[in-house]
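Need residues for this backbone.
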């Protein structure tokens, strides 16, 4: 099960803004002895429009738009990724 964790704002070189939603997979580990226990996995990313996003490292992401040959590189100043 994926849960929305947060949204970050990123910009391409032309100044266009991209809202990137960060999702984490949450696994239910609960049993009778450990009710409510969960474990989070690695985050996944996608734009509000549903386009695939790859984290390149630091504050850089690649947004893949169907029909376009190359991914668009965007950057964020979000302190969690810089």
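Answer:
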């Amino acid at each position: 099960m994926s849960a929305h964790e947060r949204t970050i704002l990123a910009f391409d070189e032309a100044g266009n803004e991209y809202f990137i939603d960060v999702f984490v997979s949450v696994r239910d580990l609960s049993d009778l002895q450990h009710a409510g226990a969960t474990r989070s996995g690695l985050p996944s990313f996608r734009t509000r429009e549903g386009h695939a996003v790859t984290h390149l490292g630091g504050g850089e992401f690649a947004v893949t738009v169907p029909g376009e040959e190359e991914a668009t590189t965007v950057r964020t100043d979000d302190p969690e990724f810089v």
